[in-house]
Amino acid sequence: GFCTNLLLTQTPKHILAQTNNNTEIRCELRKEHAGVYWFRWSQERQNFEFLVFSNLLGKATYGANIMQDKFSVHGASSHTSYSLHISHLHASDNGTYYCSVSQSSQLLLGSGTRLVDVLPLPSKTTQAPRSKKPMQDVTKSKAAGKKG
Question: Distance between CA atoms of 62 and 65, rounded to whole angstroms?
Answer without folding.
Answer: 8
